[in-house]
Design goal:
Distance between the termini of chain A: 98 Å
Strand order of the largest sheet of chain B: 1-2
CATH topology of the largest domain in chain A: Rossmann fold
Number of domains of chain B: 1
Radius of gyration of chain A: 24 Å
Oligomer: heterodimer
Shape of chain A: elongated
CATH class of chain B: Mainly Alpha
CATH architecture of the largest domain in chain A: 3-Layer(aba) Sandwich
Number of helices of chain B: 11
Largest sheet of chain B: 2 strands, antiparallel
Order of helices and strands of chain B: HHHHEEHHHHHHH
Largest sheet of chain A: 7 strands, mixed
CATH architecture of chain B: Orthogonal Bundle
Distance between the termini of chain B: 49 Å
Shape of chain B: globular
CATH superfamily of the largest domain in chain A: Response regulator
Amino acid sequence: MTTLPWRLVGAAAVVALFGAASAQAQAPIKIGASLSLTGTYAALGQNQHRGYQLCTKHVNEKGGVLGRKIEFVLYDDQSLPATGVRLYEKLITQDKVDAIMGPYSSAITEAVANVTDRYKMPMVAPMASTTSIFKKGRKYIFMVQSPAEVYLEGLLEVAAKRGLKTVAIINEDTLFPKATVQGTIELAKKKGLQVVFVEAYPKGNTDFSALLTKMKAANPDVLGAATYFDDALAITRQMKELNVNPKMYGVTVGGDLPKFYEQLGRNAEYVYGATQWEPELPYPGSQQFAQAYKKEFPGADLSYHSAGGYAGCQILVEGVKRAGSLDSEKIREAILKMDYDTVYGGFKVDQDGFQVSHKMVMFQWQEGRKVIVWPDELAAGKIRFPMPPWNQR
Amino acid sequence: MTVVITPTMIGQVVISGLLAGSLYAMVALGLGLVFGVMRVLNVAHGPLLMLGAYTTFGLFQWLGLNPYLSLLVSMPALFVVGVVLQRLLVRRVVDAPELSSLLLTFGVSIALVNLAQLAFTSDVRSVEYLTGSFVLGPFAFSKSRVIACAFALVITAGAFVLLKKTRLGKAIRAVSQSREVAQVCGINVQRIHLITFGAASALAAAGGTLIAVMVAIQPEMGQVYTFKSFLVIVLGGAGNYPGALLGGLLLGLIEQLSSLFLTTQVNEAVAYVLLVLVLLVRPTGLLKGRAG
C-alpha cells in the first residue's frame, strides 16, 4: 500500500517531464562551440564564425531542423587550447547544449576532443586536418577537410603525368608541415617519383641560401615546400636570387593568400599552391554561398575557413535530420553513413571519423590570379609548364 | 639522397654567410655598446630593430620613399626613442643588480611587440623593392643582401671612427672602461648614457631598415636578433667593439656552413654550442686578449 504514493509521484514526474519536453519543442536547438575570436588565430577563427552564422541563418530560413530553429551558444577561446577545454566542458555540463561544433585549428580541436568524446557528444570538426586527432580511437569526432598528408598530391600527380622523375621536399620543422612531408614521401613512392632531397628548417628561419644551394645541387625536377607564409615568401625570393630552377615549384599553406602575390608580384607567377577551397569551385551551392556571404558581411574576409565552418554546420544539421532525433548515438550513426555534397566539397568519413571524400585542389598563380589546375574535373585552366628559369624571365 | 658538396657550393654559402654576418655585426654593435657602457643587457634591442623595419615599411608604403633613403629617418627616429627609453626607464636600473635590468628590458621588449601588434596588426608586411641577384661566375650575390652588407659595413666603420677619433667616442669608451674615473675627469656620465642608448637604438633601426627589404616584417621579427646579437658580442668579447665585427661575420659563417654540411635545423644549435665552448674556454670572448 505504501507504494501508491510513490507511483503517484512518479507519474507526476513523468507528466512534468513531458510537459517540459513539449514546451522545449518550441525552443531552438542549441549548438555549442568555442572559436578563436581573439588571440593568434583571431582572423581565421572569425572567418569560421561567419560561416557558422550564415549557416544558422540559412537553416532557419528553411524552417530549421526537426521542426525547431537552431541557435549557437558561442564562446571565445582566445586561441588557447586550455580555454577551449574549459568552454566545451561548460557548454556540455552547464549550458546543456543539444549538439556541438568544432573550434578553430588542429591544436584546439585535439584538446577539446577529449572532453566531447568523454560526454559522447558528436562533434563535426571543420578546421582540424591533423590525421592523428582521428586515429586515437575517438568515436564522436568527424573530420571535414583534407589531411595534411595530401597537400602536395596535385603537384606530384601532375609531375608524374608530365614525365618528371625527381622531387625535393623542404619544410618548416613543426607538426603540420612534417605531416605533409611524410605524406608527400609516401605519395611520391606510389607515383614512381624519386625523392632526392628532404630537409627541414626551424620555424622563423629567414635565410635559406645554404639550404637552397644544397637543394640546387640535387637538381630536382619538382620542389615541394611545406610552408606557412613568411617562409614561402622568403624561399621564393631566395630561389630567384640563387637561380634555383625546378620545373615545378609548389608551396602548401600561405601560397593561397592574396598577399602572397601582392608581396612577390610577378615572382609568384608559375608557383603552385594547395587549397582546401576556393569560391569559384563548382561545388553545389559554393558560389551562392560566396555571394550570400559577401551580402551578409560586406567587406569581411572570405576564406576556406568561412566555407568550412558553413559546411561543417550543414553536415551537423543534415546528420540531425537523418537521425530524426537529437540522440547522440543516432546522430553519430547518421553522420558515419553520410555521403554528402557541401559547399566545401564532398563529405564522407570512415569508421574513425577520418575524411575520405574531400579533395584538395591545386592552383597555379597565372597573371596574378589563382587558376585551379588540378584535379582535372575541377580545373579552370591549363598549367603553365615548365617554370621558366629565373634569369630568363 | 646525399648531396655532394662542391667547392662552388661552399663558396656560395661563404658569400651568403659573410653578407648576413656583416648585418649581424652592425646590429650587435648596438647591443655591445649598451652592455659595455652601462652593463645593461638590452633584451629590447631586437624589438627596436623591428620598429626600424616598420618605419621603413611605412615610409615606403605611404610616401613611396626609397627604403635605403629611409635610413635617414629610421636611425634618427629610433635614436630619439632610445634616448626617451633611457631617460624614463633604463636609467633607473643602470646601477641595480643585473636581474633588474634584464627584467626591465624584457618588459620593454614585450610592451614594444604588443604595441606594434596593436598599431600595425600581426599581418605580415614586406617592402618589395629589390629582388634577384648580381651574378659573378658561378656565384650569386643577392642584391638586397649585398646592399645591406655595404650599408652595414659603412655604418659600422662610421661607428668605429666615432668611437676611436672623436671626443664623444673617447668619452663613451672612457665611461665604458671606468665610470668613476670618467666622472672624475668631468665627463657627464648621464649624458653619455643617453647618447649611447640612442646610438644603439639607431644601429638597431639601421638593421631593421636593411632587413625590411630582405624578409617579412611582423611584430615578432625582432627578438631573434636580440639572441643573435647576444651570441655575437659573447663570441667577439663583450665590451670589445671590433670584436663585434668578428663575432658577426663568424656567426653568419657558422649558420650557413652548418646548414650546408649538417642541416638547416641545427644551425642555431651549432651557434649556441659554440657559444658554450667559448664561454668555457675563453670566457672573455675571442678578441678580448688583444684589444682592450
